[in-house]
Design brief:
It is a single chain. The longest helix has 22 residues, at about 50-70. The chain folds into two domains: about 1-45, no CATH class; about 50-129, no CATH class. It has five helices and no strands. Helix content is about 65%, strand content about 0%. Helix 2 (about 30-45) runs antiparallel to helix 3 and helix 4 runs antiparallel to helix 5 (about 110-129). The radius of gyration is 21 Å and the shape is globular. The chain is mostly helical.
């Protein structure tokens, strides 16, 4: 005979998620894998949770690949021509991207929105250091 209530696993998971949300959830101190796993669990309760995670991971992948390709040039520039600090240089790049978006002057092959999001993340990192 089938019970008309939720099965035990679903009840336990939902109770556990609600409890964890109230006690520092997701776990940011347990390493990246634990953090991502926790985010995947709570994403099921958000209408756009999984697309948000996917876009954030795509942005992280882009930033990491560019960091490998260009070195740490955004956060630790070589300062041959410009003597501005890294935060100011990132702000200039953000202004350039906003100008392109405002004027609808996209450069072929670039994704100005993704680049803008990336620069904002880099600015956030630079402001913390």
């Amino acid at each position: 005979m089938r019970c008309l209530c939720y099965d035990y696993t679903e009840i336990f998971t939902r109770v556990w998620i609600v409890k964890k949300k109230m006690t520092g959830y997701p776990n940011k101190d347990g390493g990246y894998q634990a953090w991502i796993t926790d985010l995947q669990l709570i994403a099921t309760d958000a209408p756009s949770g999984h697309p948000i995670i996917r876009e954030c991971l795509e942005t992280a992948e882009m930033l990491i690949k560019k960091n490998i390709s260009y070195g740490n040039s955004a956060l630790d520039p070589i300062r041959i021509f410009s003597k501005a600090d890294s935060t100011e240089q990132i702000r200039v790049r953000i202004d350039d991207k906003l100008n392109r978006i405002q004027n609808d002057q996209a450069f072929p092959g670039d994704n100005d929105i993704d680049d803008l999001i990336g620069y904002l993340i880099l600015l956030k990192i630079a402001n913390k250091s």
